[in-house]
Amino acid sequence: MTERSFADRVGRVSPSATLAISNKAATLEADGVDVVDLSVGEPDFDTPEAIKDAANEALAAGETGYTPSNGIPPLREAIAEKFAADGLDFYGPENVVVTPGGKQALFELFQTLVDTGDEVVLFDPAWVSYEAMVKLADGTPVHVDTARHDFALEPALDDLAEAVTDQTKLLVLNSPGNPHGCIYSEKALEGVRDLAVDYDITVISDEIYDQITYTDEALPRIGTLDGMADRTLTVNGFSKAYAMTGWRLGYYGAPESIVEQAGKIHSHSVSCATSFVQHAGVTALREVDEEVEEMVDAFAERREFLLSAFADHGVDVVEPQGAFYMMVPVSEDDQQWCDDAISDAHVATVPGSAFGTPGYARLSYANSKERLGEALDRLDEYGLI
Ligand code: PMP
Ligand code: GLU
Fold first, then answer.
1. In the listed set 265, 287, 309, which residue is the last one of a domain according to the structure?
2. For atom 5 of ligand 2, which residue has the closest CA?
3. Does pLDDT of 18 surpass 90?
4. Considering every ligand atom, which ligand is closest to the CA of 103?
5. Lowest-confidence region among 21-25, 271-275, 372-376
6. Of 12-21, 80-89, 373-382, which gets the smallest average pLDDT?
7. What atom of ligand 2 comes closest to residue 179's alpha carbon?
8. Per-residue pLDDT, 23
């Protein structure tokens, strides 16, 4: 067989750990094993009917061709209105690009802004794909640890001040955050803003979990702070809030100069997001609230259930304020713990080390209370908690 050589960039990254573990769980299940899959971050609900109806109607109406590369006008308008309702009123429809998933939005932004040698600051634990995307763009990830501050950002600001340099091009914020569910305070974001302005750093704010929160307070968003409108790129998507992971629909808002440059990557790679899916996205944003609230209520109940169950086992878990993940402290060898959890207890979780923070397992509680209870019983039975 021909010996193939591959580009350096693929050698720099590994497959997505979250997806790899959920694939492993799926393989075991195909072999007849009953796995409680708490690995991948995917709502266990079906997409709300109104969204499915809108997609069906768009298909019936023949919306099956290419759309304008940056997205259909009604969706870009609806997204701009959502941004404005969140205090990000500087993104007009011309500042919005619709992508096949938030992941693609992030990928395009890294490709557009990061050059060889550019540093990109990530707060650990950080979602698995940020580091890979930085590396695929030939950039250098710089890690600032928040785990020792229970994932809070404010106490990590001194470390951030030491981490930023003239080479720092980008900084990535994700609040509510994957894998810990923490929400960054306004004060912490102000600290980030001060450094971003001083060092002329662009900030990507990944707000994909913004509708899944367990507090009554409005979510602090860095783009709303003085001095940040022109340097904040806000990424979001439909996967999590509307249970639309498989539809692949996301977007970003950015200054026009960035839209113009990133638009080249977008048009040469994906052309546009799927046409009838974009029409369904308009319905999601304009008409679907109740189902989102019901899903968030269900996540809130499961979160309570898990927190009290772990407390009963003497396991001290930092309370998530949003998203549907929690970081559970396990043995230092978290990889081994997760291997044992899946092989022995048939409970799939993701090792904290995949997010840059060993000693934890990430649990997604986008699963029914019964299955969560089953997972706890099994982990207990095998002495894992
Ligand atoms: N950002 C974060 C923090 C995520 O957890 C995910 C989940 N996959 C994404 C972005 C991208 O999601 P999607 O591509 O499904 O919109
Ligand atoms: N973001 C989700 C997770 O962290 C989905 C999988 C992925 O894209 O990484 O599990």
1. 287
2. 41
3. no
4. 1
5. 21-25
6. 12-21
7. 4
8. 87
Per the structure, the count of domains in the chain is 2
115 vs 138: CA distance, rounded Å: 6
Among 270, 287, 304, give the residue marking a domain's end: 287
- Does 22 sit in the ligand 1 pocket, CB within 6 Å? no
Residues 295 and 154 in one domain: no
Confidence of residue 20 (pLDDT cuts 50, 70, 90): confident
3-state helix, strand, coil in the chain (%, to 5): 45, 15, 40
pLDDT tens digits, residue range 134-191?
999 999 999 999 999 999 999 999 999 999 999 999 999 999 999 999 999 999 999 9
Give distance in angstroms: CA of 167 to centre of ligand 1: 27
261 sits in which H/E element: helix 256-269
Rounded to the nearest whole angstrom, what is the distance from the C-alpha of residue 322 to the centroid of ligand 1? 14
Mean predicted lDDT score pLDDT of the chain: 97
pLDDT band of residue 1 (cuts 50, 70, 90) is: low
Is 325 among the domain residues?
yes
Please state the atom number of ligand 1 nearest to the C-alpha of residue 127: 3
Query: Is any atom of ligand 1 closer than 6 Å to the C-beta of 243?
Result: no
Q: What is the DSSP string of 40-71?
A: S---SSPPPHHHHHHHHHHHHTT--S---TT-
**How far apart (Å, rounded) are the C-alpha atoms in residues 100 and 117?**
28
Residue 250 sits in the same domain as residue 173: yes
> Which two tokens mark 71?
């997205």
| Residues 310, 257 share a domain | no
Q: Is the dihedral of CA 300, 302, 305, 309 positive or negative?
A: negative
The verdict on 173 and 41 lying in the same domain is no
Are residues 210 and 77 both part of a single domain? yes
- Which atom from ligand 1 is nearest to the alpha carbon of 174? 3
Residue 85, domain extent: 65-287
Residue 364 has pLDDT above 90, yes or no: yes
